[in-house]
Specification:
single chain, 88 residues, mainly alpha, globular
Length: 88
Amino acid sequence: MLKHDKSRKQVALETGRAGVAGLLALIAVSAGACTAEDIYRNVQQNHQRECYQLPVPQQAHCLSLNATSWEEYQLQRRQLESQGDPTF
């Protein structure tokens, strides 16, 4: 039973990220004062809070899934753009 609950929490965490990101983007557009970097960092902070809601053995893995700094993200994004990646 406990294993089933952990899986449910993981699914909620994974699906919740997209909702949180969308909400933050909407708030940022509405406010007009947030930069893309602010949004990125807020999404990361929310993800970290969600990770700490998981059982301790799962927290490190969860945190590692979203450990890319803003600078690393920008570098990766520019590289993909220069390669013509259609997702950017």
